[in-house]
Amino acid sequence: MKTSLKILAAVLMTALPATAQDVPGVTEDSIKIGVMGPFSGNASSYSKALVGMMAYYDKVNADGGVHGRKLVAIPEDTACDPSKGLAAAKKLIHQDEVFMLHGNSCSGVAVAVRPVVEEAGLPWLVAHAVSDSISVPLARNIFHGVPTGSANGRAMAQFVLSKPDTARVAIIEHSNDWAHSYSNPARDYLSENGVTPVVELTMERGQTDATAQVLKLREQKPDFIIAAIYEAETAIFLRDLKKYGMGDIPVMGTAGTDLENTLKRVGDFDTVKNYYVIHSYVDNLDGPKLEPVRQILAEYAPDEELSTFSFVSIGSAKALVAALEAAGPDLTRDKLIAAMEGIENFETGVLSEPITWSATDHQGVKGSAVAGFVDGKPAVLRAWNTPY
Amino acid sequence: MMPTQTQLLLRTLLFWAVPLLLLALPLVTNAYVQFIANSIVIFALVALGFNFVIGNLGQLAFANTALFGLGAYGSAILVNSFGLPWIVSIPLAGVAGAAGGFLASAAALRGIRLYYLAIITLAFGELMRWLYVHGKSVTGGTDGMGLPAQSLFGFSLTDDRAKFYIFLVVAVLLFKATLNILRSRVGRSVMAVRENEVATASLGIPTARIIVFAFMWSGFVVGCAGALFALHTSYVFPESFGMLHLIVSFAMVLVGGLGSVIGAVLGAAALTILPEYLRSFPGMEELFFGLIVIAVLLALPDGLASLLRKLSPIFVERYYRE
């Protein structure tokens, strides 16, 4: 009789909805979210992305939270070091017992952490690191909330081919994986559209002169140049391009360079007037469309000096809040994952492309806008001569 | 004060009792604490190997992190490209580390010492890191190299608790071997070179060979630690073998006690645990870490091991020199 009662009780328990006490990191009034990022070390400037994201949590909390629960961020430092990142992930999962993870700059750390998070099964929304291998192959609980390297690389080539009569495309890049993560998807897109690069050149990091590369480019007479090189080398390359009379050839750069910073480095507008960069946002950083986000940052992170990184993770935070709302008050990890997979064409008001996750594709942002100078002022473009 | 025979016996008992007690550690840890414990075991070996050259041999050589990387990459390559079981890769990674140690000692063989040797071995470390980054077809480049899930006699080695037992056995073997070497004729020669190389040579001891041996043994220990690290993180990246890690390893040796075997364990434990405690101060960790290390070195110039020596003579290492 006693055994029968126990079985009956067990059956009734499983039929009941999950309560906050059953779900790690969720209480009646809070949701614990682990935020990993490089808060120290050489790459600590990336942590601005996570500071911006946590400022958005504060805004959500000030507005009453999600289903009455506050978003409680638990930041953990990775120092952009895979070993330290693993320790941070294990601490958040097994000691702090957070409900989910959100954030992560530094692809190397994210790739190293992936097996641990995948095994633990808690939702992880990657909000800054771009490596495709973080979210492919598909893991049920891992989502990408920013454009990945391949999305950006393809966006670069797409913009290049949107210029009428572009047939001769040249590529110049560093010989490292960062550069390849942009140039290889760009090559794929060019190939799909029947374009073979007329010349592919390497410029090594730290190089202070690009004469040899520029002279080779002059022989090939490209219509457009794709440049997967860091900002310092970009400034040198653009300078030498102008020096040898090729300043009118447009150059498409990566998200690793900033348009106005490049202008500052070069110090001459004429040199950068035909330079374009990947720009993941709906507007210039000081543009009117980003004013609401700037206000949030000013209110909830008043001491923070804003940079491009400050905005990048807020888009995924908005999508997360939408998914948490959709998951309902009886929050579980499975419900959140299901709700995230239901997010479709979600306009964040920050990222230039909407977020769509599905059960078969967790890379949510499929492209980026481009920034370039139009009439002497920085502008966000959807395609050649097409404002965003 | 030197230990008595009874105290020596106690010391031997203690050497075996500590790892035996540590066998129970996985019963009381969660995955995070266990991960930190595993890190301590690995970095204790890194500090032990580093200490052998800078503390016992007395040479200012900084190839340690490069040798650690050789072991880690060696293990990952042997597993991924040659299909060897990870456990087999441990001694082979040690051999790779020893070969790196041989190369790093080439400068010392040419009579280069102190600051000049320091610069050359630093350059060796940077060269190795360059190879890790640019040897993409072999090392995976900046993307790094993953280590597939491993098992031993049918037991999975994906869990940190299971890894701990293997790490502990390897560490005990290497610590015991190092202590035996230090007590042997070769070990005494190593320390004689540190005291006075010319006087040592005048006794007919081949100092050049002794120096090469010390670098190679250091490389072997650190190379084995590299293989453990590859399994520990399941991923090997060039960033794990940079200048910052070299500085931390150096600090482990100094904080533990230069030339002290016990100090290698204490230094590794202190400087692995400390940053974890400092996690509560995001953005201030580096400042606090630096201040605490400076404070320890000012208060205890002979390292944490000197505290134990004051506590009891059983912790006095036979050939340790303050």
CATH topology descriptor of chain B: ABC transporter involved in vitamin B12 uptake, BtuC
Which CATH class of the largest domain in chain A?
A: Alpha Beta
CATH fold descriptor of the largest domain in chain A:
Rossmann fold
The run of helices and strands of chain B is HHHHHHEEEHHHHEHHHH
**Strand line-up in the sheet with most strands of chain B:** 1-4
Helix content of chain A: 40-55%
Return residue spans of chain B where pLDDT drops below 50 for at least 5 consecutive residues.
Answer: none
- Rg on CA atoms of chain B, Å: 19 Å
User: H/E order of the elements of chain A?
Assistant: HEHEHEHEEHEHEHEHEHHEHHHHEEEE
Given helix and strand content, the structural type of chain B is mainly alpha
Number of strands of chain B: 4
The CATH architecture classification of chain B is Orthogonal Bundle
User: Which segments of chain A are poorly predicted (pLDDT under 50) over 5 or more consecutive residues?
Assistant: 5-17
Distance between the termini of chain A: 71 Å
Brief account:
The complex is a heterodimer of chains A (388) and B (322). Chain A contains 14 helices and 14 strands. Chain A is α/β, with parallel strands linked by helices and 388 residues long.
Report what the structure shows.
The complex is a heterodimer of chains A (388) and B (322). Chain A has helices at residues 2-15, 47-62, 82-95, 107-120, 149-162, 177-192, 211-220, 231-243, 259-266, 269-272, 291-300, 309-312, 314-327, 333-341; strands spanning 30-37, 70-77, 100-103, 124-126, 142-147, 169-173, 199-202, 224-228, 251-253, 275-279, 363-365, 369-374, 377-383, 386-387. Chain A is of the alpha/beta class and 388 residues long. Chain A folds into two domains: 7-149 and 288-367, 3-Layer(aba) Sandwich (Rossmann fold); 151-282 and 370-387, Response regulator (Rossmann fold), CATH 3.40.50. In chain A, the strands form two sheets. An eight-stranded mixed β-sheet of chain A has the order 7-6-8-9-10-12-13-14. In chain A, β3, α4 and β4 form a beta-alpha-beta unit. In chain A, α5 (149-162) packs across α6 and α13 (314-327) crosses α14. The longest helix of chain A is centred in the N-terminal third of the chain and has 16 residues, at 47-62. Helices cover 72% and strands 2% of the residues of chain B. Chain B has helices at 5-22, 31-56, 64-82, 86-109, 114-134, 136-139, 160-183, 185-195, 197-202, 207-233, 243-256, 261-277, 285-299, 305-311; strands spanning 145-146, 151-152, 155-156, 235-236. Chain B has 322 residues and is mainly α. The mean pLDDT of chain B is 92. Chain B contains 14 helices and four strands. Chain B starts with a helix and ends in an 11-residue tail after the last helix. Chain B is globular and about 50 Å long. In chain B, α7 packs antiparallel against α10. Chain B has a single domain (5-16, 33-315), classed as ABC transporter involved in vitamin B12 uptake, BtuC (Orthogonal Bundle).
